[in-house]
Write a structure and sequence with these properties.
468 residues; alpha/beta; Rossmann fold; Four Helix Bundle (Hemerythrin (Met), subunit A); 3 domains; binds adenosine monophosphate; binds zinc ion
Amino acid sequence: MKIYNTLTRKKDEFVPINEGKVGIYVCGPTVYDYIHIGNARPMIVFDTLRRYFEYKGYDVNYVSNFTDVDDKIIKKANDEGVDASVISERFIEECKKDMKSLNVKEATTHPKATEEIPDMIEMVNTLIDKGYAYEKNGTVYFRTRKFADYGKLSKKNIDDLRGGNRELLVSGEDEKEDPLDFVLWKPKKEGEPSWESPWCEGRPGWHLECSVMSKKYIGDVIDIHAGGEDLIFPHHENEIAQSEAANDKEFASYWMHNGFLKINNEKMSKSLGNFFTVREIGEKYDLEVIRFFMLSAHYRSPLNFSADLVEASKNGLDRIKTAATKLKEIIDAGASGDMTEIEAKEAEGLNAYIEKFEAAMDDDLNTADAISVIFELVKNVNTNINTESTKAYAQKAYDTLKLLCDVLGVSVDTKEVLLDEEIENLIQERQDARKNKNFARADEIRNLLTEKGIILEDTREGVRWKRA
Ligand code: AMP
Ligand code: ZN
């Protein structure tokens, strides 16, 4: 498999550090609010990368953090008059719900920054001991110029940074030895969460978190480090500086960065206010459609979000599901027995779609081309398989379609959606069952509704329901 590596600026052949294994670290969200669909792009893309590695038989260690201490979290906590952890825990739970609806698998580990403070202190100590960091009035800074490779990921020249980047020069931290130095540990301000450390009661800098959590849950060297392209500088550049200075090893073999999800050609972001949360979009569309939409473009290309494009993805996904439903009907009612000679040949030919799909995915995770291959397969199914076909042939086609869709994390099966009226009838039936002390039936109905994503709430005014 070839992966475009931001570090080398070309597609490199993927060679794992340990045969058959792959360690992937994806920078996760800062949890102060619901995630928006821009944040969902790296989640979906790199979850697909993970699924593809699993499909190829790799043992994947997938780590993605939650940044649960940050100015924005603290501000929200102060506004609401609660502890910062109340805010972060709330939005970690909400984020996990969104990930589930987007069919993003749980990471092998989802570390939280606040639970890894001792290891962060240890890394800062190492950096101080090695002369890569220094303390001034309780704040610890990384001595950027001492790290000779600084700028190797973002291809920034350290002297240009000094001359060209006024933000860095006027950051106001004039106690720094050099404006390029960045914070590893900072003292607490009134009302902020803090931890004891050798330097002051305070909290870690954001970049430090990822260096420490990837080391702890994957190792000093990780195969793939990923995130959105806005993280290349300074976040990932600083992670490299910290980790390589501390561990004396190359930090990550491959760096993958997804392009932006845009709206009217502008990056979707909280600060611009041009965002939709995953939750909002989930009210309009099945989130599986959003997943399919995200994968319809190459992950490094910018992707514009528009109702028309999402509608096109919905139609595309429906076409796949319709073909799968037809195949299932034939599997149920088609001719029994062996495939005919012609069918056997055609069925053999289906393997070519698997090969083409893999070729697309092997070419830097080209999900756009991989989806085109699935459409070619659907076309083949629609042309060649009909009610006269054997069950065996339909099964082979169904299995092929499902195999490929599973890699993308989209289901070929049509979800059975209950209509409002059906839900209300079931609720009535449950009430009657309870009146008649038929609790088994009442429970059965509740479970059935839960399975279909309907949540019941027994209130004094009667039973209320909502869709999960
Ligand atoms: P944040 O919570 O802002 O640190 O973002 C979490 C992840 O979402 C990072 O990997 C970002 O690069 C990514 N991200 C944020 N906005 C977008 C966007 N509009 N398109 C794609 N990725 C994004
Ligand atoms: Zn990170």
